[in-house]
Amino acid sequence: MRSRRALLYVPADDLHKINKAANLSVDSIILDLEDATATNRKQEARQISANVLQTIQFGDSERLVRVNPFFSGLTEADLEAILPAKPDGIILPKVINAADVQTLSSIIQSAEQKNGWQIGSIPIIAVVESALGIIQLPQICQADARLQAIICGGEDLAADLNAIRTRSAKELFYARSAVVLHAAAYKLQAIDMVTADFTDLDFLVEEARSGMEMGFSGKQIIHPNQVEPVQKAFTPEEDEIRYAQELIRQFNENQSNGQGAFAIDGAMVDMPMITRAKNLLARANITTE
Ligand code: COA
Ligand code: MG
């Protein structure tokens, strides 16, 4: 699965921002037909998105489109306009059950068949952003083979919970954790909430780091200034890499001497630490044996 450390939303009807995003070194770009596009601009946004997907170079960035949720009645027209332009993936918001994902999957499959594209080549990412979505995560995660990631939508979720959004995000901790837990159980990526304040980059780094520490593999962002700090937060530092490599080296040495657990700097090291060290190296794209 490709690395998705930062996923940048761009209003799908805003050509200036789309061009700007295309020139950034960001893992994923999301052309947003949902909340970033005003209700009276949906048709225009569909046309612009389909057009840029076919005409603009996005460099190494993944080109995703967020369509409107099925209950809006807009999704089918979104997909009809977008799929012929072959986006790299579709983001479905407000997912509450497996059927949502399966309906989208069958529409994508028809487009793949019609165009002679490889079946299964266009992945789905589901946004879970309601209380019902959170409690139905087990069925959502198992809905379809196209599903690669679950996004935790913090703002909508807080509204649905009738919670007050606080700086610590304590009101969202359980739901964020549930997204990480279910994604891990079904081998999917977990993508963390947006940090809406795009001016306080220290706070952004803190929040991105907290998500990374919880087990998220990436984070949604909304402004170009957020790209670099977020991608850095989800990339292991040099000293973390060196420490992980040293841990594995000493582990292997101890294993060959017939010792499973050993100590480094006054702390015990055994198998789970080695698994985590390997996870960290995998995030740094370093292969271990
Ligand atoms: N993608 C690409 N470019 C963006 C951008 C984005 N998401 N957000 C801002 N920019 C551009 C601006 O156009 C501006 O370009 P310029 O210097 O060439 O004029 C530059 O970056 C600086 O932007 P700034 O003036 O700081 O912000 P703004 O007031 O123009 O925009 C927002 C603020 C919040 C409206 C904007 O960041 C945005 O649209 N974000 C995405 C919103 C979204 O998609 N929400 C739905 C998902 S949660
Ligand atoms: Mg939302």
Task: Note the main attributes of this structure.
single chain; 289 residues; alpha/beta; TIM Barrel; 8-stranded parallel barrel; two-stranded antiparallel sheet; 12 helices; 16% strand; globular; binds coenzyme A; binds magnesium ion
Description:
By secondary structure, the protein is of the alpha/beta class. It has 12 helices and 10 strands. α11 (238-256) packs antiparallel against α12. The chain is globular, with a radius of gyration of 20 Å. The two termini are 19 Å apart. Bound molecules: coenzyme A and magnesium ion. Magnesium ion is lined by residues 35, 93, 129, 153, 156. Residues 8-11, 16-17, 20-21, 32, 35-36, 194, 222-224 line the site of coenzyme A.
Reading off the top of the CATH hierarchy, the class of the largest domain is best stated as Alpha Beta
User: Rounded to an integer, what's the Rg over CA atoms?
Assistant: 20 Å
Structural class: alpha/beta
Q: What level of helicity do the residues show? A: 40-55%
Number-wise, the strands total 10
Q: What compounds are bound to the protein?
A: coenzyme A, magnesium ion
Tell me about the largest β-sheet: 8 strands, parallel, barrel
Work out the count of structural domains: 2
Please tell me the overall pLDDT.
97
Widest beta sheet: strand line-up:
1-2-3-4-5-6-7-8
CATH level-4 homologous superfamily of the largest domain: Phosphoenolpyruvate-binding domains
**Oligomeric state:** single chain
Question: Helix and strand string, N-terminal first?
Answer: EHEHEHEHEHHEHHEHEHHEEH
Regions with pLDDT < 50 over 5+ consecutive residues?
A: none
Morphology: globular
